[in-house]
C-alpha cells in the first residue's frame, strides 16, 4: 500500500496544487465562514426536500475569451502561464467556443465515455432540449431563470424549474500563450491566440424559486433555446456540459438570422464540496486539504481539456481521466517497452522527470545489455526496448483509491 502524503515534514501541504486551485480552495473556505454560503449552511438549505435540496452550490468553469471593454479585441498579456485577471481590469468575458472546438470537445468526451475500460465511470445525458426564460421579479434581487423542457411550452400546468442565482465569486483566468517566438514575430501573436481559450470560474448558490405558475413570455428579458449534452465522471465528481444556444422571440420561434452559439462548461459537483464543508469531524487543516484536493482536480482537468479542444489530442499527450480523480497525461512512469511515445512526450519526460530514457526495473541488464554483448542490437530493426517483453514482469501502475485510502501498486494491462 502506498499512502498519499498530504503534509510535508514542515507541516505544509504536499498536494500538487497550483496557485489558481489553491486560491479557489481558500475562497471556498472563506465563503463558508461568512455571507450567503455560511447562512445557507447554517439554515440547512442543502438538505434534501422532496427529492432535491432547496439550494445547490455551483462551482462552474466556462470557456471563452477575455476581451477589452473599449474595442472588444482579445485581451493579451506577455505571460506564458495562466493568470487571474484583476477585477479592476477594464475587460469582459465572452463565453463561447468555435464550432470546430465544440466538435473536438464532443468527440473527446464521447470517446472517453464509450471506452470499454472507463465507460462504467461515466454517465451521459444527451440531446436535452430546454427553453430558458429570464425574468426580473419584484420579490427577488437576482434574475430568475425558468427552464421548460421540450414540448412543455404551451401549458402552464406542466413542469418547469425556476432558479435564482446568488453570485459569490467570479474570476477571469487569462491563458498564457506568450513565448520567445511570438515576441520575435509581431504578426504571430494575433494569429496564435485567435483560437486560444481563456476561462471564467464562477461560484454561485442556486435557489429554487417557488412559483405556482409561469409569468407570461412577453415579460421575459431574454428567451433562449438550448440543446445540451452532459457527461459526468462519477469518481472525479466532474460534469461536462456542451450546449448549442439560440436566442428566440418566444419558446418556439428562432429570431431571423440568429446564429447558434457553442458553449463548453465544466463543473465540480457542488454536493462534494458541501460534504466537506459540513463534515464536523474534520479539523480546519484537513478541511482545507480536501478542498485543495478537489479544486486541484478541477483546475488540472480544465487545463488538459482546454488543450485537447484547442490543440488536439496529438499536441496534448495521451489524456485520460485517471483513478486519481485527475485528467492527466500518461507521463509518470513512461515505459517505452509497451507504449510508443511521441517525440513531444519524450521531450517533456526528459525535461520534467529525467534527462535519461526511463529504465524500468532491471530491464537494462536483463534484456538490453545481453543484446548489446551479442551484437544483436546493432542489426535489429526494432529497438531493444521493445524486445524480450514477455520475460519481464509488469507493467505496474499506481491506483488511487481516494484521499482516505490512499494509493496502491497494482498490475496494469500490457498494451
UniProtKB/TrEMBL annotation:
Its cofactor is Mg(2+). Keywords: Hydrolase, mRNA processing, Nucleus. GO terms for molecular function: mRNA 5'-triphosphate monophosphatase activity; polynucleotide 5'-phosphatase activity. The keyword rRNA-binding does not apply. Pfam families: mRNA_triPase. It is found in: Nucleus. Its EC number is 3.6.1.74. It catalyses: a 5'-end triphospho-ribonucleoside in mRNA + H2O = a 5'-end diphospho-ribonucleoside in mRNA + phosphate + H(+). Residues 56-175, 195-268 form the mRNA triphosphatase Cet1-like domain. Its main location: nucleus. CDD domains: CYTH-like_mRNA_RTPase. GO terms for cellular component: nucleus. InterPro entries: Cet1/Ctl1, CYTH-like_dom_sf, mRNA_triPase_Cet1, mRNA_triPase_Cet1_sf. GO terms for biological process: mRNA processing. The keyword Hydrolase applies. Belongs to the fungal TPase family. This is mRNA 5'-phosphatase. It comes from Babesia gibsoni.
Amino acid at each position: 500500500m502506498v499512502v498519499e502524503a498530504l503534509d510535508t515534514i514542515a507541516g505544509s501541504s504536499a498536494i500538487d496544487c497550483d496557485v489558481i486551485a489553491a486560491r479557489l480552495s481558500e475562497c471556498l473556505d472563506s465563503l463558508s465562514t461568512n455571507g450567503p454560503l455560511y447562512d445557507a449552511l447554517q439554515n440547512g438549505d442543502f438538505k434534501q426536500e422532496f427529492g432535491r435540496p432547496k439550494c445547490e452550490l455551483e462551482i462552474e468553469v466556462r470557456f471563452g475569451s477575455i476581451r477589452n471593454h473599449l474595442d472588444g479585441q482579445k485581451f493579451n498579456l506577455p505571460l506564458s502561464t495562466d493568470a487571474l485577471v484583476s477585477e479592476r481590469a477594464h475587460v469582459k468575458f465572452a463565453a463561447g467556443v468555435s464550432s470546430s472546438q465544440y466538435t473536438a470537445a464532443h468527440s473527446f468526451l464521447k470517446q472517453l465515455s464509450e471506452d470499454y475500460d472507463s465507460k462504467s465511470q461515466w454517465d451521459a445525458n444527451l440531446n436535452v432540449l430546454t427553453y430558458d426564460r429570464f425574468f426580473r421579479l419584484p420579490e427577488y434581487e437576482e434574475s430568475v431563470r425558468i427552464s421548460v423542457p421540450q414540448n412543455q411550452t404551451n401549458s402552464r400546468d406542466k413542469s418547469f424549474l425556476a432558479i435564482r442565482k446568488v453570485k459569490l465569486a467570479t474570476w477571469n483566468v487569462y491563458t498564457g500563450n506568450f513565448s520567445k517566438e511570438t515576441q520575435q514575430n509581431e504578426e504571430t501573436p494575433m494569429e496564435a491566440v485567435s483560437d486560444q481559450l481563456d476561462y471564467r470560474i464562477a461560484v454561485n448558490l442556486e435557489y429554487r424559486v417557488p412559483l405556482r405558475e409561469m409569468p407570461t413570455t412577453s415579460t421575459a428579458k431574454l428567451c433562449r433555446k438550448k440543446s445540451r449534452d452532459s457527461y459526468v465522471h462519477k469518481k472525479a465528481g466532474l460534469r461536462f456540459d456542451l450546449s448549442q444556444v439560440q436566442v428566440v422571440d418566444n419558446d418556439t420561434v428562432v429570431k431571423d438570422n440568429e446564429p447558434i452559439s457553442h458553449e463548453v462548461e465544466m463543473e465540480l459537483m457542488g454536493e462534494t464540496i458541501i460534504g466537506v464543508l459540513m463534515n464536523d469531524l474534520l479539523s480546519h487543516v484537513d478541511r482545507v486539504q480536501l478542498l485543495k484536493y478537489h479544486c486541484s482536480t478541477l483546475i488540472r482537468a480544465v487545463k488538459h481539456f482546454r488543450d485537447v479542444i484547442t490543440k488536439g489530442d496529438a499536441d496534448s499527450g495521451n489524456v485520460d481521466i485517471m483513478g486519481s480523480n485527475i485528467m492527466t497525461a500518461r507521463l509518470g512512469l513512461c515505459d517505452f517497452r509497451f507504449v510508443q511515445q511521441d517525440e513531444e512526450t519524450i521531450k517533456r519526460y526528459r525535461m520534467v522527470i529525467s534527462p535519461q530514457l526511463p529504465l524500468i526495473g532491471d530491464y537494462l541488464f536483463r534484456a538490453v545489455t545481453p543484446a548489446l554483448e551479442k551484437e544483436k542490437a546493432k542489426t535489429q530493426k526494432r529497438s531493444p526496448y521493445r524486445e524480450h517483453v514477455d520475460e519481464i514482469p509488469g507493467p505496474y501502475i499506481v491506483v488511487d483509491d481516494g484521499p482516505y485510502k490512499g494509493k496502491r501498486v497494482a498490475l496494469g494491462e500490457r498494451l
